[in-house]
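Slide 14.
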Amino acid sequence: MTRRLRFESPAPASNALNEVEDGWREEFTVSAEVFARMGSETVLAARLTGLQPVEITVRRSTSTRRITAAWRAVDVHSGEVFALTSPAADPDGSRAWLKMMGAAGVAA
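Slide 15: predicted structure.
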């Protein structure tokens, strides 16, 4: 695992005028691997619009099992934001790793 990602969930908050604004609540930070998706026609079309589809892998834990597609991941070192497009899933049934799809370059 080469990156540290901070996972955040949506958290509406009130401003000084009591108006509800979109915000984010930090949930936890874990080591992760981020792979850029390559090759398919859909991926190429997304890249033409400025999006980079990615696959994120994290170790399965009680915290990471809570991740949903409404969350986002933020690289702790670079500040790069990944909007999650799928919930965390265990595709191979190993109960060791969770994978999710996301996109860099999206206003999350």
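Speaker note: The first helix runs from residue 41 to 48.
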